[in-house]
Amino acid sequence: MTKKKYTEIAELGEFGLIDHLTKNIKIKNESTLKGVGDDAAVLDYKDKQVVVSTDLLLEGIHFDLTYTPLKHLGYKAVVVNLSDIYAMNAEPKQITVSVGLSSKMSVEAVDEFYEGVYLACERYDVDLVGGDTSSSLTGFAISVTAVGEGEKDSITYRSGAGVNDLICVSGDFGAAYMGLQLLEREKKIFQSNPEVQPDLATHDYLLERILKPEARREVTELLRKIGIKPTSMIDVSDGISSEMLHICKESNVGCRLYEEKIPIDATTAMLAEEMGINPLVAALNGGEDYELLFTIKQEDYEKFTGADGGINIYAIGHITEESKGAYLVTSSGQEVKLTAQGWKHG
Amino acid sequence: MTKKKYTEIAELGEFGLIDHLTKNIKIKNESTLKGVGDDAAVLDYKDKQVVVSTDLLLEGIHFDLTYTPLKHLGYKAVVVNLSDIYAMNAEPKQITVSVGLSSKMSVEAVDEFYEGVYLACERYDVDLVGGDTSSSLTGFAISVTAVGEGEKDSITYRSGAGVNDLICVSGDFGAAYMGLQLLEREKKIFQSNPEVQPDLATHDYLLERILKPEARREVTELLRKIGIKPTSMIDVSDGISSEMLHICKESNVGCRLYEEKIPIDATTAMLAEEMGINPLVAALNGGEDYELLFTIKQEDYEKFTGADGGINIYAIGHITEESKGAYLVTSSGQEVKLTAQGWKHG
Predict the structure, then answer these.
(1) CATH classification for the domain delimited by A166-337, as one of 3.90.1720.10, 3.90.650.10, 3.40.630.10, 3.40.50.10310
(2) Residue B179 and residue A176: Cα distance in Å, rounded?
(3) In angstroms, rounded to a whole number, what is the distance separating the alpha carbons of residues A64 and A211?
(4) What is the pLDDT, as a whole number, of residue B341?
(5) Could you tell me the pTM of the whole model?
(6) Which member of A20, A26, A261, B340 lies 3.0 to 4.6 Å from B242 by CB, making a disulfide possible if both were Cys?
(7) Superfamily of domain B28-150
(8) Min CA distance, A101 vs chain B (Å)?
(9) Candidate from A46, A52, A59 with C-beta closest to B96
């Protein structure tokens, strides 16, 4: 076994580290006039509107470094912010990344994290234009802000859903949540008996969903291509229930979701049953799926026919008047009230 | 003594807390189309360019809650970001504020912090348009992103300084650094003998400079009013030396600063001598002054005459060719090489 290289961050110093981390940046977007290297980035969006979203990720709350590869973490930190920009039906163009580095992190560890950041920049065509680097006395702290652009008439809010609109989602749900349960289970087993190797085989999909999620750029591209402007849209970070309630609240409407329409991958369902978790609860309240939840006019639905290019879009319910409330209709026909949860991380 | 009210954050929950903190927001700027309450904020800058800056502040590194009132901290967290926008010769219009709340923080404590945030928004006419709220396992973490606008021809970079340009600064230097030394000294005395009351009287100015700094909006307004576009500009967060070296590097020039021209307040100098610190070192390497350091064409200097409206602007040196290096000329005529330091917080 070769020993991994360990360079103290102090060897480079703050400015040296920033130079080291940013020296290979190549600007991709015309709207990026000035990136890293001044007091602020300068962007030019001409007649487009500007969309801004931000997230703070803290060690022990949002991620556990015992099972999260740093490269994946860098990738995910970017992707979860881009997801918010796509949820506005806009296109991300720039990000800033600030990090508070714990004393146990080497330059090599920081490099791994930034490899993931740059990989996400590459994959989603965004420019890293700024940030802040400091030490942290406690854990690793990451703050990402994403900036994007949208046409005035395309930007989609949570507030536009109308009665009888169809409620659609991309992808499937509960997989990231089950991936997290799996990692937590194996961590406990490892802690009580370090000789046992983790049993992660055959769960690639679930692990990828929690450790290296993607933002649904292709979904917004598809919607544009087939000429659908959603009446409302949100990304699913806290589970379908919570996000659906946001749309209902902002649009002053109610909804009916149908249990049998909620897309759940077979591997999600299998592991959930093995672990005694209701797969539906994982899908509705699990979170971290980063799929898109949106509403469309009924007449738009047929535009998806034959046009999806491998992108799975599912109609899972419809919008009702506000007075009818927000409910899930179970397979047996019962109506169960949707409830929101926050702070479920960690 | 009345007991302070203590409400657990869990009583409100994440979404309840966000509602509580944002319910009184009134949007002030035309460019803010959508603030808090969707996946992202939506801004419209029309033909202006967009300027973005971000900072991450961590408990124990950037601030010490044993002597930092939360309201001041909220104010400062915003101001230090606005300072970066002014340093681009631009105007801040929106901010996002993300917080990781430690478990010992009550709703009342969070309210105090946000009182400071809103006070800064009021004072600088910026809108709070987004953010993120989570718990923190470790300390209080704060991330602020500021967005502003500038005319294409006004935005000022670090890279435009030319040979023979005058180097100017606003305000005075080293006061925040001495304020910090004072707080640290009194903290140590208090820790070894809690009966002793802190000796902070007569040091109001120094304490205000460290605990509740201001961004130099009036300076950029003055420059606009009298028709000066600086050739380069930066805000002084890490001390004059470090910032001057940034300008030299980005502009490919050298400089001469003159010891006797560096503005240092009398109270700064007095406390420095009392504590055995060279006041010049405090001014050059101390940091956190949040004054502006900028270069102008020589012929522009006379425009300041009679126009300053109480704003102190000092010429402290001039730009040279790069080959001449970056030096401070002492009162005795010696040349001392400027050196940069980073990560001096805490």
Answers:
(1) 3.90.650.10
(2) 48
(3) 10
(4) 67
(5) 0.93
(6) B340
(7) PurM-like, N-terminal domain (3.30.1330.10)
(8) 10
(9) A52
